[in-house]
Fold this protein.
Amino acid sequence: MYIYFYILIGCCFFCLIRAWLGRSIPDRMVAIDIMGTLAVGITALYALISKRGFLIDIALAWIFLSFIGTLALAKYLSHKTLDE
Amino acid sequence: MVWNELAGMIVIGIGVAFDFLGCLGLLRLPDVYNRLQAGTKCVTFGTCGILLGVFLMQGFTPTGIKALVGIPFVLLTSPVGAHALAKGAHIFGVKLTDKTVVDHYAEDRGNKLTL
Amino acid sequence: MRKIVLILFAFILWVLLTWSFTLQSLTAGGVVALIIGLLFGNFVIEKAGPVFDLRRWFWALVYIPVFLWEMTKANFDVAYRVLHPKLPIDPGIVKVKTKLQSEMGIVFLANSITLTPGTFTVDLKGQYLYIHCIKVRSTGLAEASHEIVDRFEKLLIKIFD
């Protein structure tokens, strides 16, 4: 069970490498967005391993927080003001 | 009930494998749009697999049902975030890779792309 | 009528998220769902009629396995392209047209296209969708529409229009 956990953390390192190499700003944003979705999986898996049910609530909240963060970053990319 | 734990382990394993492939695609593919393709599809599928595996292992307990409710939320929010990022990147002026065949979107938007 | 639909959705979501059938939690959920439905019903739901049409729910049930099958195929496709040492891709953005009318239907179509093999929605204007393909097969409007959109359009028309 823990091996899955370590593989997922390795995936996060891949995303961080992409955010570091980058080349353009949208590349880094894509990496951060994908890391948000990975974090949902990690939290759900940790809820299963540690047998703490409340962590799955955090995973559910994380889905929406990551979504709103991505939308805000995308708005910034297209040169619009945030209060449109 | 050993078999539902076994099924849960297998489903979580498939999900983790696709997460890994998605992140590998994020490193290997050439431009933003292709990276979004690999990243969004594989990582969404992988996360759904993990949540489904949690449901299979927990059964009809509050934790399991919450994991099951999470699946449609991921399926609805993740593609929308990806559209927003792709559109933002195109307006920001990221060039497509050299292998690109056709780009109707830039023609219709009517401006030359400059980085 | 629109308020009743939202009250029902909110209450079902509450029951799924708490999953305890004591009188206390059901009453609390009912009161919260009632307040939310009365306040926001007119903004969230456009038309209440189609929600109670059972045929649409049946086609939605048919749609789920089709979608899951396409999504699994998509993932093996992307996995193949990523693992191949030469990266067999020729990407491009093509324009397609859909016959769907309702906004909800177009949103679901765009999301489905994003999660299926080699295609990815970049933008939509009215009934035209701009789609980034990882492997472009045809560039004309009609052929591309036939190739990419038709699989889902038949079912989505029955669900949403």
Remarks:
- Chain C touches chain B through 37 residues (CB under 8 Å).
- Residues 2-50 of chain C form one domain.
